[in-house]
Amino acid sequence: MARCSEEVRVADWLASGVVPLTGRADGPPLVPPGHAATTARELAGRIAEATGGRVRVDGPALLGERAAFTGHTRNGRSSPGGAARLLPTADGWAAASCARPDDPLLYGALIEREIDGDPWSAIAGWLAEHTGEELAERAELLGLPAAPIRPTPPAALLTELSTALPTWPPRDVRGLRVVDFSALWAGPLCAQLLGLAGAEIVKVETADRPDGARRGHPGFYRLLHGGHRAVAVDPSTADGRSALAALVRSADIVIEASRPRALRGFGIDAEAEVARGATWISITAAGRTSNRVGFGDDVAAAAGLVATDDDGGPLFVGDAIADPLTGLTAAACALTSPSTGVLWDVPMAGVIAATLDGTPSRPAPAGAAPPRHRPLGPPAPDHGADPLIALGIGHPC
Fold it and tell me: InterPro entries annotated for this entry (predicted)?
């Protein structure tokens, strides 16, 4: 995406709803560094163009949309939602999330002692005595959403998108089937935008582990999933894996947001599906060749999207901002795909890094828009609401 002027950069941030979410709780709001809000506006424009104007969204406003439901606001070195922290290491700073039920146990393995109660004091103590490189190595091994804040290579696909539309005609997704294995925010936003463009969205969850976002704000979940179909499968059984494979083969577009080995373990081969002509959207923390895991807050901060004020040290920018920016990017990819199969590798860290251009954060002028959300659509489906047989899949597991 093209670098923008300072005036445009600041105007897009002020319109995004992210500025009130950036800074210390007891301090003024800050304009973040970089041009993520401008990139979001440009991506929304590409989506509108690719859909002949059928899908028009306010790209910058999507970056702060969840906070419009939750009411969360800026909180300095704690993320607005409270699940992530920015903490000093022996040689710098790190971003870490502790949001999943198993995370305290995994952090206990990191620090090599059991964590009882609030984990953050113990995590902070370990980080203060270890380098960012030690954290990166051990977090990847343990599957922890934690990483040092350090320069990240930009994702080339944003530049690729800038040149794809002239060479690939926009793809009409009306009537196409999108099988969505993703959860939380980035992948579901991509699926929602494709659904608005006319695709059939089939959300896939395992029988015993629904999308964790179902436990979040019901209005936000409804916004992302309203009108979609939902199936639950049990890939631990032979019948479940067979049904899963048949469902994937029925898809024109597949969205996944896990490390590649997860679906491979269920017998699903992304490359084989691409070879038959499917579009595969692979959303990961740091790319398909990385074993790193991460969520929107820690990934964005670790990639360098942090604000600073006169007191120094990093502060969180927005609410899990890597998620909506990646969701917009993934949707633009799906809508500019060639008719032959293609695998889009969409690393959240690289998407964020591509928006950083050396411009610093700065105090916000008056006029920053608050977080806001789009009108709610149809209700979201219950977990496993649709039997597979209703989707034309032979085995109704």
Answer: CoA-transferase_III, CoA-Trfase_fam_III, CoA-Trfase_III_dom_1_sf
